[in-house]
Amino acid sequence: MMFIQGDRVDSIASKRSAAERFINLRQQKKVKEFLVKLRGYKRPDFNRMILDLCRLKWTHEKISFVLPVSSASTVSEWARGGTPNFENGEALIELWRAETGIERIPREGEWQTYKYEIGQLELL
Length: 124
What we know:
With about 120 residues, the chain is mainly α. The chain has a domain at about 45-110. Helices cover about 55% and strands about 5% of the residues. It contains 6 helices and 2 strands. It has helices spanning about 10-15, 20-40, 45-55, 60-65, 70-80, 85-100, and strands at about 5, 10. The protein has a two-stranded antiparallel ribbon. α3 packs parallel to α6 and α4 (about 60-65) crosses α5. The N and C termini lie far apart (about 75 Å). The relative contact order is 0.13.
């Protein structure tokens, strides 16, 4: 079995065993499954987490002091839609979980489908 690539004949592909070609097909299938799962991924809603912490009397300054970030302007940027790097994002998620007691993190696009109460909202 010979494969033609442009003006050359690929004789290496024909020397591969059927098991090697099958492994390649399995890897391609895994990649395709991963890409399908990736389409449904929604990133964490950091803006909502910061709003929840603000409702619990956390200021941007307090959040930036607890997290490994330089200043409150970094947290303000996240509140306006910026994306923290992985380590700062994980630290913010852990702070949010510790303060709210909720395990499931909010995702973008779930504003009306996933509701919970934070702080003293039930008093209003």
